[in-house]
Amino acid sequence: MAWIEKKKRADGGTAARVVWRLGGGGGPYQSETCGAGSDAQNLARADGFKKMVEAAGQRWPEGWVRGEGFVRPSGADPLKAPPRFVDLGEEYVRQIVDISPGQRKRYLGHLGVLRSLRVGGQLVFTKPVTGLTEADLKAWLIEWDRSLKTKANYHGLIHGVFAYAVKRGYLAANPAVGTAPKQSRVRQSRPELRFLTERELETVVRLSGPDTDLLTLTVGTGLRFGEVSALWVGDVDLERRTVRVNKAWKRNGEDDETETPGWLDRQLGPKHQMRDHHLGNPKTPKSRRTVSISPSVAAVLGPRLTGRSADDFVFTSRSGLPLHNGDSHTHVWRKLMKALAAEGIAPLRFHDLRHTHVAWLIAGGAPLPHIQARLGHESITTTIDTYGHLLPAGDELISGIIDTALSGRTIRPLQT
């Protein structure tokens, strides 16, 4: 329920403030102040606004802008019905500037899913954008049979559409505020990371056949599939034992739209083309990096570089084409998983080779900031959140401190 609070103005008059919880229950507090008229006028206006809030289900009245009252949507025909959520969503996605073609296409695909999604038997996302409520969003989050991570990803898009609707003047407040799945729950819902034992890795390499070198380089550097499959011969420096990561495969956008930086575009030819993908910048600015390789990894790469052009791919498919993620998974990885199952080894993802690489570094005592730089993580927080639990030193140090205290000795910092 909304209520009215009286506040004294500096001139001695009385302002009336209407306070309520958005959507009722535990929603965030909202307020609107009526203070420009006489005491009686302010109280009467507050009472009228309070009734409108209650009639709207403890929400801002449709078309009301805080501090201004009812206003017309910016740039909209006041006689025209508000757009459907999915239609305004498409308008929103197409006007985002800082987004890759592949991500724009992915968002439009999300809207296509929402367009046909029924919640409580209704196509809620084809309602006018002013017709969706916080209750609709909560019902969608509860009923939709998808992982919590997928729901969180979709919720981010939905929140952005509603924020755009507020900016355009169709809504006074964003109904998605406060409804997102908690990040702590999203992290808890993720599957456990898979780390290969030495025996498992030995078996994987043995059964991988022609792909042995690819797997060896990946587990030896921690590169992502889109990075290792984009490596050119000229990116490898055997003398300094380094690999330069300056490009990666990206998904095309609508109508095969691409986003290749100019310096790279000038070097591309027919042999660098791949279905539904193009070469572009790595995942983040810090993903553009130089990674050192061990002598054993350098020895594996050596024969692959001899007599080849600098812009040749280090790894290609059986037919000499660039490695396509989907094709490699279907025709190569699935066969390898069947062979591993026959050996009693649980299935894994290609990305688990990256996780295994990090597990090795942590077990060997490599500092986390160095691991962060090697993986191309934008933030050390990502590295700690993902791999911090593997650190053994903390537990060993704590055990030593406890034993010192229990034995009656004095606790002192370790000398370094």
UniProtKB/TrEMBL annotation:
Belongs to the 'phage' integrase family. Residues 252-292 are annotated as: Disordered. Pfam families: Phage_integrase (PF00589). Residues 191-402 form the Tyr recombinase domain. It comes from Nocardioides fonticola. The lineage of its organism: Bacteria, Bacillati, Actinomycetota, Actinomycetes, Propionibacteriales. InterPro entries: DNA_brk_join_enz, Integrase-like_cat_sf, Integrase_catalytic, Integrase_recombinase_N, Tyrosine_recombinase_XerCD. CDD domains: INT_ICEBs1_C_like. Keywords: DNA recombination, DNA-binding. It comes from the Bacteria. This is Tyr recombinase domain-containing protein.
